[in-house]
Amino acid sequence: MGYDVGRFQGDVDEDLLCPICSGVLEEPVQAPHCEHAFCNACITQWFNQQQTCPVDRSVVTLAHLRPVPRIMRNMLSKLQIMCDNAVFGCTTVVRLDQLASHLNDCEHNPKRPVTCEQGCGLEMPKDELPNHNCVKHLRTVVKQQQAKIAELEKASAEQKHQLAEQVTEAV
Ligand SMILES: [Zn+2]
Ligand SMILES: [Zn+2]
Ligand SMILES: [Zn+2]
Ligand SMILES: [Zn+2]
């Protein structure tokens, strides 16, 4: 699936749009003769239905597809796109070829791991932090450890019992 045209600053050249999803081309490939370009994911899905070019219906198969020319890739990588996390308050606009690296350390990414600084030091996705309660978390940790201790005590009691039986038999 391509990128939503609305996320780009300024006009996007029509040649950079995918005819299947009408978004801006993502991982574009092109048909060999008509040179129509599509998102890799879009055309792969389309070929499940029919092995033709979706624009002019000429026969094309997956094996015929090739990468788009360098000039087209350059045009795409220079487009200015808004961050995926704009809805979460990120105002960053980056070149398309910088988007992935920005997303990696975008502080508005709701799934970015953050560490609780209220005391327990637990690491969790940022969007879970508002519902996080250190005391509750620590209580579950304590409960789990108590259960573990109880298990260990049981195991050790059983071993002692077995040992005692062996000693009795030996006598
Ligand atoms: Zn597409
Ligand atoms: Zn075509
Ligand atoms: Zn961002
Ligand atoms: Zn905490």
Characteristic terms for this protein:
binds zinc ion; two-stranded antiparallel ribbon; alpha+beta; three-stranded antiparallel beta sheet; 171 residues
Structure description:
The chain has 171 residues and is of the alpha+beta class. The protein folds into two domains: 5-78, Herpes Virus-1; 123-170. It is built from four helices and seven strands; from the N terminus they run E-E-H-E-H-E-E-H-E-E-H. The chain has helices spanning 40-47, 70-78, 99-104, 134-170, and strands spanning 28-30, 37-39, 66-67, 80-82, 93-95, 113-115, 123-125. The strands form three sheets. A three-stranded antiparallel beta sheet has the order 2-1-3. Strands 4-5 form a two-stranded antiparallel sheet. A hairpin with a 7-residue loop joins strand 6 and strand 7 (123-125). The chain binds zinc ion (4 copies). One zinc ion is lined by residues 116, 118-120, 122, 132, 134, 137.
Profile the largest sheet. 3 strands, antiparallel
| First-to-last CA distance | 78 Å
The CATH architecture term of the largest domain is 2-Layer Sandwich
User: Which distinct ligands sit in these coordinates?
Assistant: zinc ion
Low-confidence stretches: none
Integer count of domains: 2
What is the beta-strand fraction? 5-15%
Order of helices and strands: EEHEHEEHEEH
- Beta strands, count: 7
Set out the fold topology.
Elements: E1 28-30, E2 37-39, H1 40-47, E3 66-67, H2 70-78, E4 80-82, E5 93-95, H3 99-104, E6 113-115, E7 123-125, H4 134-170
Antiparallel strand pairs: 1-2, 1-3, 4-5, 6-7
